[in-house]
C-alpha cells in the first residue's frame, strides 16, 4: 500500500511538472530571465541557444523590455554563459541597453538570486522565465520564493525530445523539485 501511495505521489508531481511546462504566457512582462545551460567556448550550447532564441523572439514581439542572461563559467579563461548569451542576442539584433547579464552563477537557484540583484534596482518584479519546459516548475517556484512574480516561458524546442532524454530529465526534475518543496534545498 505504501508503495502505491509513493507511486501515486511521484506520478502527481510528474504531471505537475509536465503540465506546467506546457503553459506559455504571451502577456507583456518587464523582463525575460534566461536560465543558463552551458556555453561551448564563445557559442551557446544547443540547449542554451534555444533558450536565447526564445527570449529574443519574445523581445522582438515586444513581450519583454529586458533580457537577463544568467550563468557562470566552467573555469578560468572561459567566457560565462551570461556573456555568451548577451553577445549572441546583440548579434541577433537586441540592443545592448536592453540586456542584463550575470556571470557567476552555477545553479538554477544562483541564476535566479543573481538575476534578482540585477532587476531590483530597476524595480522589476514580473518576469518570464525562459528554459526547457520540464525545468520551469521548479525554477518558477524558486523565483516566486525569492519575491519575483515569475511566469513560464518554455522553449518551443529542446534537446530533450527523445523518450529516453525526456524521461531522464523529468526524473531528475521530480527529485530536485521534491527536494526543493520539502527541504527548500536550492539547486
UniProtKB/TrEMBL annotation:
<dbReference type="InterPro" id="IPR051599">
    <property type="entry name" value="Cell_Envelope_Assoc"/>
</dbReference>
<dbReference type="InterPro" id="IPR003848">
    <property type="entry name" value="DUF218"/>
</dbReference>
<feature type="domain" description="DUF218">
    <location>
        <begin position="30"/>
        <end position="173"/>
    </location>
</feature>
<dbReference type="Pfam" id="PF02698">
    <property type="entry name" value="DUF218"/>
</dbReference>
<dbReference type="InterPro" id="IPR014729">
    <property type="entry name" value="Rossmann-like_a/b/a_fold"/>
</dbReference>
<dbReference type="GO" id="GO:0005886">
    <property type="term" value="C:plasma membrane"/>
</dbReference>
<protein>
    <recommendedName>
        <fullName>DUF218 domain-containing protein</fullName>
    </recommendedName>
</protein>
Amino acid at each position: 500500500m505504501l508503495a502505491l501511495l509513493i507511486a501515486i505521489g511521484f506520478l502527481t508531481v510528474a504531471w505537475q511538472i509536465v503540465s506546467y511546462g506546457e503553459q506559455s504566457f504571451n502577456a507583456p512582462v518587464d523582463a525575460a530571465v534566461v536560465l543558463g545551460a552551458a556555453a561551448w567556448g564563445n557559442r551557446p550550447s544547443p540547449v542554451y541557444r534555444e533558450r536565447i532564441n526564445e527570449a529574443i523572439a519574445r523581445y522582438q514581439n515586444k513581450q519583454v523590455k529586458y533580457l537577463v542572461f544568467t550563468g557562470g563559467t566552467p573555469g578560468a579563461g572561459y567566457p560565462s554563459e551570461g556573456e555568451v548569451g548577451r553577445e549572441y542576442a546583440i548579434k541577433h539584433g537586441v540592443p545592448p541597453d536592453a540586456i542584463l547579464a550575470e556571470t557567476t552563477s552555477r545553479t538554477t537557484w544562483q541564476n535566479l538570486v543573481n538575476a534578482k540583484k540585477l532587476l531590483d534596482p530597476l524595480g522589476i518584479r514580473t518576469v518570464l522565465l525562459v528554459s526547457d519546459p520540464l525545468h520551469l516548475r521548479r525554477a518558477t517556484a524558486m523565483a516566486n520564493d525569492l519575491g519575483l512574480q515569475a511566469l513560464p516561458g518554455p522553449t518551443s524546442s529542446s534537446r530533450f525530445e527523445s523518450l529516453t532524454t525526456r524521461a531522464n530529465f523529468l526524473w531528475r526534475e521530480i527529485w530536485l523539485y521534491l527536494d526543493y518543496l520539502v527541504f527548500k534545498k536550492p539547486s
